[in-house]
Design goal:
Layout lengths: L9 H10 L1 E5 L5 E6 H4 L7 E9 L5 E6 L10 E2 L2 E3 L7 H13 L5 E13 L3 E13 L11 E7 L1 H8 L9 H13 L1 H8 L2
Parallel strand pairs: 3-8
Antiparallel strand pairs: 1-2, 3-6, 4-5, 4-9, 7-8
Length: about 200
């Protein structure tokens, strides 16, 4: 796990990220306005546009990240390779590649799989209420992990991940990742297999 990198000024970087203007949407993904990241996640949350990225290596293993302890929601939970939000006036395509570089230090083609809406409450700390676009990509090189965002990471095979998600370890995964992976296994295996042979 070498090649680590840190983000821009931990405290200032985190404060700036929380003030990012996110895109509020309705259930049809029509833009309704903008709100800061922190406000979007307060209380029951406000529906906003988001994305999740799943990065596979040439062996078909999925990159998982453990969220940093500083995250206000689901800290130290294991999740998909990368997830975030497009900012105000930022296209989805620009946002997914920006965040892939910021968190993992990589660039690779990303294939859109599907979009879904979900709500998940994290006690009194806040909630995720997102219309989330899911993408998959393939990367076989090194990572440059941003330790301001990611506490740990690992590559996992699909059979091993299935065992973990069906046992006690399932409680260590973020709720959105469980929803995403269940649907990918059900509806998008062909796309995953295609990435292995890319």
């Amino acid at each position: 796990m070498d090649g680590l990198r840190t983000g821009p000024g931990t405290a200032r970087g985190a404060a700036a990220a929380e003030s990012d203007a996110l895109i509020l949407v309705d259930e049809a993904d029509r833009e309704l306005g903008h709100l800061s990241k922190s406000e979007c996640h307060q209380g029951r949350g406000v529906l906003h546009r988001a994305f999740s990225l799943l990065i596979f290596n040439p062996k078909g293993e999925l990159l998982l990240q453990q969220r940093a302890a500083s995250k206000p929601l689901w800290p130290l939970y294991w999740s998909n390779s990368c997830c975030s939000h497009p900012r105000r006036n930022e296209s989805m395509d620009t946002a997914i590649h920006r965040r892939l570089d910021e968190e993992l230090g990589i660039r690779c083609p990303l294939q859109f799989l599907y979009k879904f809406q979900y709500h998940a409450q994290f006690g009194t700390a806040g909630a995720e209420h997102e219309l989330c676009s899911v993408y998959a990509g393939r990367h076989g090189g090194r990572l440059r992990v941003n330790r301001d965002e990611i506490a740990n990471w690992r590559w996992v095979g699909q059979e091993e991940l299935a065992r973990e998600m069906s046992g006690e370890a399932a409680a260590r995964f973020t709720p959105w990742f469980i929803l995403e992976w269940t649907r990918i296994c059900r509806d998008h295996q062909d796309a995953v297999v295609a990435l292995e042979g890319a």
